């Protein structure tokens, strides 16, 4: 399980995860499963694109950049 922060790649307009100062994920794709930190809990979700912007299924926020997320075997599930 890897933890990081959601950021936007301004060149590709894809969301990606920054794991540390030199380690980034590839651009995320629709349907990528992950967990997002909501308060003191981790919530399972997946990232999607609605044609104009990215969103997390079941997570009511308009601002994805800066959210704490984790990915890996425990986050791979069928939503």
Q: Sheet with the most strands?
A: 7 strands, antiparallel
Number of helical regions: 0
Q: Helix proportion of residues, in percent?
A: under 10%
Strand percent estimate: over 45%
Instruction: Say how many strands there are.
Output: 7
Mean pLDDT equals 91
Straight-line distance between termini = 18 Å
User: What oligomeric state is this?
Assistant: single chain
Runs with pLDDT <50, length 5+?
none
Could you tell me the radius of gyration in angstroms? 12 Å
Structural class: mainly beta
Q: Largest sheet, order of strands side by side?
A: 3-2-1-7-4-5-6
- Which sequence of SSEs, written as H and E, runs from N to C? EEEEEEE
Specify the overall morphology: globular
Keywords:
mainly beta; 7 strands; globular; seven-stranded antiparallel beta sheet; single chain; 79 residues
Briefly say what this structure is.
The protein is built from no helices and 7 strands. By secondary structure, it is mainly β.
